[in-house]
Design a protein that fits this description.
The protein is α+β, with helices and mostly antiparallel strands. The protein has two helices and six strands. Helix content is 23%, strand content 47%.
């Protein structure tokens, strides 16, 4: 896995989707656990554009775990008690699946 796709995934997890645009597969599936699944490159780009229009979140990545075909990014929102974990499945230098978990403290 090259450094560019790792940096793109880390940026995506912090709310900056632009660096990841060239790496998102046409048939990507983005599973936002407990909420919905977003299918396809165009739908992911639309979701990211809608989120960007609301302003960039104050997210900070913590731990990044690299495996052969997966990248896991954990982090938190510095303004709230929300924590996230994004799991990226990567094939042939393309992000083919993202599974996102978000937890808020009580």
């Amino acid at each position: 896995m090259n450094a560019h796709i790792i940096a793109a995934c880390e940026a995506f997890s912090m709310g900056d989707a632009q660096p990841a645009q060239d790496f998102i597969a046409e048939d990507i599936e983005w599973h936002i656990v407990g909420d919905r699944t977003i299918d396809g490159n165009a739908a992911v780009k639309e979701m990211c554009a809608d989120a960007a229009a609301q302003g960039r979140p104050n997210f900070q990545n913590g731990r990044v775990i690299k495996a052969k075909n997966h990248l896991i990014v954990e982090g938190s929102d510095l303004d709230t008690d929300m924590h996230y974990c994004d799991i990226y499945a990567i094939e042939k230098e393309q992000i083919v699946e993202i599974t996102s978990y978000c937890l808020t403290g009580a």
